[in-house]
Write a structure and sequence with these properties.
Blueprint (H helix, E strand, L loop, with lengths): L5 E9 L3 H9 L1 H7 L4 E2 L7 E5 L5 E10 L3 E8 L8 E9 L2 E11 L4 H22 L1
Antiparallel strand pairs: 1-7, 2-3, 3-4, 4-5, 5-6, 6-7
Helix pairs in contact: 1-2
Protein name: Activator of HSP90 ATPase
Family: Belongs to the AHA1 family.
Length: 135
Amino acid sequence: MNKAMAAIEQINYIKSPSSKIYKTLTTQEGLGNIWTPKLKVKPEIGFVNEFDFDEGYLTKMKVQELKENKWVLWECIDSDPEWVGTKVSFELSENENVTTIVLKHFDWKEMTDFYRWCNYNWAMFLWRLKKYCEK
């Protein structure tokens, strides 16, 4: 693997149990409220989640790993060409009713303007996740 591959990393602190955040990240209802309402999602290893952002194609994320209330890992198998082959992980750790979430979108082939735009959008994703889970 090329060590020069780019990765996006974001962190946020959410005043909500990790179980609520995990459920939001792994269910149709949760991701429909914070990412796009046009989706097919199941919390099952091997399932291919589908997200429609009205861009003329579906973004397909294969569920690679799930550790309840702790870890989610997806691999992009279809989307914008720059996303295909990348992985997205969500790491959760709860302490005194605050959950730390570390989001990583890694294995990018190069740092492009699309990469930079996605970096911004992942930050907005975490902001929406925080608003949704704290309400």
